[in-house]
Amino acid sequence: GLEGATDEDTDLESRPPVVTIMGHVDHGKTSLLDALRKADVAAHEAGGITQHIGAYQVTVPDGSRVTFIDTPGHAAFTAMRARGASVTDMVVLVVAADDGVMPQTIEAINHAKAANVPLIVAVNKIDKPGVNPDRVRQELLQHEIVVESLGGETQEVEVSATQKINLDKLLEAITLQAELLDLRANPDRAAEGTVIESKLDRGRGPVATVLVQKGTLKQGEIVVAGAEWGRVRAMLDDKGRQLKSAGPSLPVEILGLSGVPTAGENFVAVEDEGRAREISDFRQRKLREKVSAAHTAGRGTLAEMLARVQLGEQKEVAVVVKADVQGSAEAIGVTLGKLGNEEVRVRVLHSAVGQITESDIQLAKASGAVVVAFNVRATTQAREMAQRDGVDIRYYSIIYEVSDDIEKLYKGKLAPVQREKFLGYAQILQVFEVKRVGNVAGCRVTEGVVKRGCGVRLLRDGVVIHQGELSTLRRFKDDVREVGNGLECGMSFANYNDIRVDDQIECYEVETVAAA
Ligand code: GDP
Q1: How does pLDDT run across 152-171, given as a tens digit for each residue?
Q2: For the residues of 261-303, what is the DSSP string, one character each?
Q3: Which atom of ligand 1 is nearest to the CA of 124?
Q4: Which residues, judged by CB distance below 6 Å to any ligand atom, belong to the binding site of ligand 1?
Q5: Is residue 78 a contact partner of residue 20, using CB atoms and an 8 Å limit?
Q6: pTM higher than 0.80 for the full model?
Q7: ipTM of this complex > 0.95?
C-alpha cells in the first residue's frame, strides 16, 4: 500500500470537478440536479437503473466528466466541512428569476465564501413569462457577487431546469471553472476520500457512499471509513453498475464495512487488517474523547478561540451575526468590519435578520466562529446543536457591547469567558396587576426549568423585547427556587412591566468559564 505517500507534481492527473448545488428553497435545486443527471450522455449506454447514492457523475458531450453532490442545500455541505472534509470544488448557486435573491441565497453565498469555493450563478426558471434576470444580477451585486455581464468574474447561466434550457451551457461553465482551478489528483496510490452518505441496509448491511478524492479504490481492498473498517465486498456506481475500481472524483457505494460511518468522515484504503484495526481503534478513541469533551462545560469555540489568540495561533476571529432588524445587522457588520489589528483579523462570515437556525450553527462550527445574536434567539434545534457542538452564541441588545466583546476577544483580553446556559421556556397565560410589585405574569413552564433570580429574555413573536432578571418566582403563594416543566408559576421581572399574555420567557444562567 501507498497509504500516506505524498504526491509528486508529476504523478498528478486532471480529475473531474465536484459540484454542490445551493440556493433558496423552491428555486429549483432538485429539479436542476434531476435535469443534469438526465443530460448525462453515458446514462443511455449504461442502460442501468439510476439509484440515489448521494452523488453522481455525468459525462458531458465533449467527454469530460462532472460529479454532483446529490444533496442540495448547504446543510450537507457545511456539515461535511465541519468534520474537516473539503469535498466541493465549486458551488452552483441557483436563483429563481421570478423570486430573486432570498435569505437562503445569501446564506449559500456566505457558506461558499467561508469555504473559499468559487460560485457559478444559475438563474433558473427563465421559461416563466415576464421574468427579469437583470434584477437578479443587480441583487447579487449587493452581496458582492459580480457576474460577468456586469464586468465581474462570476460566471452566470440563464437556465430552465424543467424546460431543459441551457443545461449544456451550465455544464460548459462548470468545465471552464474546473480548468481554471486546475484540479488534479494522483490516481496511482492508495485511495483516500470522504464519506458522502451512509445507511444500514436490511439486506446488504452497512452501506456507504464514498467520494474517492485521491488514488484508486479497488474491489477487495481493506478500507477504514470514519471509525469503521472492512473489506470492500462490492462497489457500485449511481447507475447500479458493479465496478472493479474507482478513481479520483468518482462517487461509489461500497459494501462490506463493519458499521455505518458518518457523512463527512474520511476514508482510506490500507494494506492489511492490522493497520485497519489500528486506525479504527485510534479514531474510536478520538471519538470518545470528543464526546466527553463536548459534555465538559467550558469547552467551546469562544474559550478555545481566546486561548488560541493568546497563544498567537489564531489569526482571525470569525463572527456570524443574526439580528432582529436589517439596520442592526448592518450596523453590527460595519462596526465589526472595522475591528482587528495587524495580528488578528475580524471577519463577518454571515449577517442576516431572523432567529438563529441550524444553518448558522453549522456555518459557525465549520469556520470556528462565534454567533452574535442581537435581540434574537436561537430555535430549539439550533440551540441544541450549538450546545452539542460547542458553538458559542453570545446574546446582546446594545451594539457597542458587541464590538467591545469582539475587540476584547481579538486582543486576547476577554477573560474569564462568560457562557450562557439555557434553562427553560415559560409562556405567559395571564397578567395580574399587583400593588407595589407591578405586573406579575401567570405562566406555565413549557420546556426545561425556571430558577429563582435567573436571567430572562422576553420574547414577543420571536423577537426579544426585554432582557433582564427574574425578581420573584412563586408557586401558589410561596417563593420557590425552581419550577419544572409543565408546572404553573408566577413571575415578575426586575424593573420591567410591559408583559402580555402569550409572551414567551426564555430563562438562562450565566456561568463563568476560565479562559483556556
Ligand atoms: P428546490 O427546493 O430548490 O429543490 O426546488 P425544486 O426543484 O423542488 O423546485 C421547486 C418548484 O419550482 C417545483 O414546482 C418545480 O417544478 C419548479 N421549477 C423548478 N425549476 C423550474 C424551471 O426552470 N421553470 C419553472 N417554470 N419551474 C421550475
Answers
A1: 999 999 999 999 999 999 99
A2: PPTT-EEEEESSHHHHHHHHHHHHHHHHHHHHHHHSTT-SHHH
A3: 23
A4: 23, 25-31, 72, 124-125, 127-128, 160-162
A5: no
A6: no
A7: yes
